[in-house]
Amino acid sequence: MSGNGRVPLWGPASGAGWSGAPAPRVPTPGAAVELLGASRWYGNVVAVNDISFVLGGGVTGLLGPNGAGKSTILHMLAGLLQPSDGLVNIHGAPSWRNPTVYRDVGLVPERESVHSFLTGFEFAQLNARLQRLPDPDGAARHAIEMVGLTEAADRAVGTYSKGMRQRAKIAGALVHDPSILLLDEPFNGMDPRQRLQMMELLGRMAEAGRVILFSSHILEEVERLAQNVLVIVSGRLAAAGDFREIRRLMTDRPHTFTLRSSDDRRLAAALVGHPSVFGVQLDGGRLAVRTSDYAGFARALPVIARAGEVSIWELRPTDEDLESVFGYLVQR
Amino acid sequence: MTGAPPSGLAPALPPASRPTAASGRRSVILTIAALTARSLLSRRRSLLLALLATLPVAVAALVRLSGRAGIDDEAVATAIMDRLIVTTLLPIVGLVFGTAVLGAELEDGTAIFLLIKPIARWRIVVAKLLVAVGLSIVFVAPASFVAAAILQVGGPGWSGAIGAAVGTAVGATVYATVFFALSLVTGRALAFGLIYVLVWEGVLAGLLAGIRALSIRQYTLGITDAITHPGVTNPNLLDLPAALVLSGVSIVIAAVIAVRRLSSYQIGQADD
């Protein structure tokens, strides 16, 4: 990501905010997918705020809490929304009001979007025909096979499980072998086995050189699949880059735990002397501990408790929800 | 991730399946139209409309068989042909099909897969209009023809039946096209369509003669009357050239609006 120096790995991701003056909006030559100072607002509500990034091959996760603006970004990329400001380009051409980009793009929307009376094969075949492929039947069969729906290909989509419908949508999106695949929350409603299959499929497609961008609000999904990640919070690009870097920042941030034990006061006294702990608080029968070293604290706690002969009944992280993680990244 | 374009794409599909500019296949317009027709006809409302369409024929047949209607029984003929067919059945059918072919699909999300294809928007509009207009005509014009023939509207001969069929076919075309465009302008096309039919055409057009030029019902009646009674001018109706020209203008304007609206269609605010 980045590659052109306009998008820092950390910090403000917009050209304008980064330099303190509006940067010239010059598209990156040869970029498969590019947002350049892209914003989208609805009246007074800003859904996406001055976002820039460039994508090449591989899987990129678009990570953020619900309502962050992920779908808006994907819809702008898919030409289904006009950017209120900035550029949204596919292979150097604007995606808005430009149906020719759909030769290179496949979109898997989050909403149910398949006529329930069509069979899985018919849906893939329909997409192939609308893409004007020379052999729509062959392309449809191949796409159905790729998503593992061959056995159910002749059943109506209305009889499919949520995961199967999702795969049917993906078959329709990749039937024309697009170089760019956009997926909006593709794992919603899938059971663990289906998730694994879908991750393997997307991984294979990325290995073949495709640009794959998928949105998710679940950290673990992105962690397992994406080499690169774009973290979106409140319409802004909070972080962008290698997932391990972002994960490390997320892990190293200050954590707060609450504990219940056989002797909170004695445990608090013992913990406060440990270097990984920088705050303890006794409050209403619970002990709150703040640590800046997640792993160090996790190792030290049982040792300290055993040495003080204190039994721990409950240990609970209090700020593990994704919003607080994202909030921390934004502050960085 | 780099700024470089992906290179050396290993196609996951056989090369023969990749799109080519020269590939000559079944027209996308026919593909879209076939899917749309299948989608519409599989819905229960189409069955209800089909039953509604048989109503004028059934009523006309009953009246005829009861022996109460003669060829000069104008009141009965007017009740069936004007009130039942032109005023009720025709706009309802046009409204239902006009708003369902694309507007309803945009609402329920099934149109997305169509919009993300390399297809010029006018082709999508043409395909959808073919279905909306075609089905509207099929559901109304034959029923009008048969009902008029049974009632012997316009006297012995076929002029009344032909006039009714042609008039309602043109009317169905205009209604379906206008309501199709309306469904791309507003999400409340059904409500606005009903207001147009009930208030504008039902009340105002009867009170103010100038409104006739903007009433699809008046176009239908004008064409029907001109064919049914050739050479006879009815001062209360639009003449044939005016009705035809106004119908054509309405169709063109509605179609242009539809293409423009679809070309700049934006998906609803994302609930991401």
Report on this structure:
The complex is a heterodimer of chains A (332) and B (272). Chain A has 332 residues and is an alpha/beta fold. Chain A has two domains: 15-247, Rossmann fold, CATH 3.40.50.300; 253-331, Alpha-Beta Plaits (2-Layer Sandwich). Chain A has helices at residues 15-19, 70-77, 120-130, 136-146, 162-174, 192-207, 219-225, 243-252, 264-272, 294-307, 322-331; strands spanning 33-42, 45-55, 58-63, 85-90, 93-94, 105-108, 180-183, 211-216, 228-233, 236-242, 255-261, 277-283, 286-291, 312-317. Chain A is elongated, with a radius of gyration of 24 Å. Chain A starts with 14 loop residues before the first helix and ends with a helix. Chain B is mostly helical and 272 residues long. Chain B has one domain (28-263). Helix content of chain B is 69%, strand content 0%. Chain B has helices at 28-41, 44-65, 74-100, 103-108, 112-115, 121-151, 159-185, 189-207, 216-228, 240-263. Mean pLDDT of chain B is 86; it is low at 1-24. Classes of the chains: A alpha/beta (332), B mainly alpha (272). Chains A and B meet through strand 2, helix 2, strand 6, helix 3 and helix 4 of A and helix 1 and helix 5 of B.
Features:
heterodimer; A: 332 residues; alpha/beta; Rossmann fold; Alpha-Beta Plaits; 2 domains; six-stranded mixed sheet; four-stranded antiparallel sheet; 11 helices; 14 strands; elongated; disordered N terminus; B: 272 residues; mainly alpha
List the helices and strands and how they pair.
The complex is a heterodimer of chains A (332) and B (272).
Chain A: H1 15-19, E1 33-42, E2 45-55, E3 58-63, H2 70-77, E4 85-90, E5 93-94, E6 105-108, H3 120-130, H4 136-146, H5 162-174, E7 180-183, H6 192-207, E8 211-216, H7 219-225, E9 228-233, E10 236-242, H8 243-252, E11 255-261, H9 264-272, E12 277-283, E13 286-291, H10 294-307, E14 312-317, H11 322-331
Parallel strand pairs in A: 3-8, 3-9, 6-7, 7-8
Antiparallel strand pairs in A: 1-2, 1-4, 4-5, 9-10, 11-13, 11-14, 12-13
Helix pairs in contact in A: 3-4, 3-5, 4-5
Chain B: H1 28-41, H2 44-65, H3 74-100, H4 103-108, H5 112-115, H6 121-151, H7 159-185, H8 189-207, H9 216-228, H10 240-263
Helix pairs in contact in B: 1-6, 2-3, 2-6, 3-6, 3-7, 3-8, 6-7, 6-10, 7-8, 7-9, 7-10, 9-10
